């Protein structure tokens, strides 16, 4: 193979790639305008730590702003442009807020990130750098989402929240994760493990697999394993109680709650919980819950074992993996995919506060011995 073959002189693309290559099979408005920063087509990595298992990691940290949220916000931005909006607004100081800021800027629109008071500057500074207006409110995340959703239809406003009730267009984006997994593997996995907050992502991934099954492209639906914080375990309790509707879900007692480093997946009542519960039931799925401390410790483990720097809200999935290997759900005969949703670079301050890094001080003439010891 020569250079001319590897690098043809004619353009290799004729338009947006990434998730937009799936446009014709996504249930989207015909009017939507592609807005892209190169999201999607993230790598599916074979696990290095478990060579005896057919275990893969879908590395969503490779998206433009470092998380899977770039997929729905790309669709939201395209829909915002098509509908003549002037400002895109979300309730988030985290991944959704960052994606909203980036894709609004890419689309030439203003953006607003609404959040609870007290978000650290290190988390919101990137949003400000992308031109987002930062607004603090005296309410919980779930109440703020409800309030913003109620403003839909206001002149020039586009509510880009990543909940189906607020924005049905963006809710279809994570189907592309299912498409890409099947495109890379050639088949559907037996098990899919994913951190879950609002519930929309896992519901959308499931919808993608359902679509592929109906089309005859795959022969099974993956068993979904949702992983949640132990202090925000409403989804786990709802599945165990057999709840199937919004009245039942939102009528449940609030979880223990409180401050958590897993804030990106912390909801008293998951906004898309009904859809997530339906997906879990249809796939014979489970919900597993773990505490902050274990999730933070897992960040280092994932880094050492897999070479991936993920946020605690993604590392929590590895705790579920341990349990699933122990009970035999994940074994050499089950093909498993784990979802690494977000990069650790957005949460470094949180990780440092919870687990300060250790350092070793030596004299320069001891360097050779130290390196030999580490390498040995």
Automatic annotation (TrEMBL):
GO MF annotation, one: L-serine ammonia-lyase activity
PANTHER family for the chain: L-THREONINE DEHYDRATASE CATABOLIC TDCB, THREONINE DEHYDRATASE, MITOCHONDRIAL-RELATED
Keyword Lyase: yes
Protein name as catalogued: Threonine synthase
Example GO biological process: L-threonine catabolic process
Keywords: Lyase, Pyridoxal phosphate
Transmembrane parts of this sequence: none
Species this chain originates from: Bauldia litoralis
Keyword Lyase: yes
InterPro entries: Ser/Thr_Dehydratase (IPR050147), TrpB-like_PALP (IPR001926), TrpB-like_PALP_sf (IPR036052)
Residues covered by the Tryptophan synthase beta chain-like PALP domain: 35-342
Domain of life assignment: Bacteria
Cofactor (UniProt): pyridoxal 5'-phosphate
């Amino acid at each position: 193979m020569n250079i001319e073959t590897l690098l043809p002189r004619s353009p290799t693309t004729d338009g947006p790639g990434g998730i937009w290559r799936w446009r014709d099979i996504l249930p989207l408005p015909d009017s939507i305008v592609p807005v892209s920063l190169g999201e999607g087509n993230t790598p599916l990595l074979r696990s290095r730590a478990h060579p005896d298992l057919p275990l893969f990691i879908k590395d969503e940290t490779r998206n433009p702003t470092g998380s899977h949220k770039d997929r729905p916000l790309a669709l939201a931005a395209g829909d915002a442009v098509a509908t003549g909006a002037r400002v895109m607004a979300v309730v988030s100081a985290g991944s959704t807020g960052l994606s909203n800021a980036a894709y609004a800027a890419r689309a030439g629109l203003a953006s607003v990130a609404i959040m609870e008071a007290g978000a650290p500057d290190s988390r919101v500074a990137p949003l400000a750098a992308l031109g987002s207006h930062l607004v603090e409110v005296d309410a919980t995340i779930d109440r703020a989402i409800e309030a913003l959703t109620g403003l839909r239809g206001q002149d020039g406003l586009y509510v880009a929240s990543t909940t189906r009730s607020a924005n049905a267009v963006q809710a279809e984006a994570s189907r592309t994760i299912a498409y890409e997994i099947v495109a890379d593997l050639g088949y559907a996995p037996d098990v899919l493990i994913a951190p879950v907050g609002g519930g929309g992502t896992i519901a959308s991934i499931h919808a993608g697999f359902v679509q592929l099954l109906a089309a005859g492209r795959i022969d099974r639906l993956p068993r979904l394993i949702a992983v949640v914080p132990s202090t925000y375990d409403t989804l786990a309790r709802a599945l165990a109680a057999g709840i199937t509707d919004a009245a039942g879900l939102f009528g449940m007692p609030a979880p223990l709650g409180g401050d958590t480093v897993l804030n990106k997946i912390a909801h008293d009542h998951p906004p898309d919980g009904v859809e997530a519960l339906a997906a879990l039931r249809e796939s014979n799925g489970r919900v597993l819950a773990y505490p902050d401390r274990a999730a933070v410790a897992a960040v280092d483990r994932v880094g050492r074992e897999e070479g991936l720097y993920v946020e605690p809200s993604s590392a929590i999935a590895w705790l579920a993996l341990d349990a699933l290997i122990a009970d035999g759900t994940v074994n050499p005969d089950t093909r498993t995919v784990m979802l690494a949703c977000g990069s650790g670079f957005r949460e470094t301050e949180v990780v440092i506060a919870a687990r300060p890094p250790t350092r070793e001080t030596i004299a320069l003439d001891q360097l050779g011995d130290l390196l030999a010891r580490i390498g040995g």
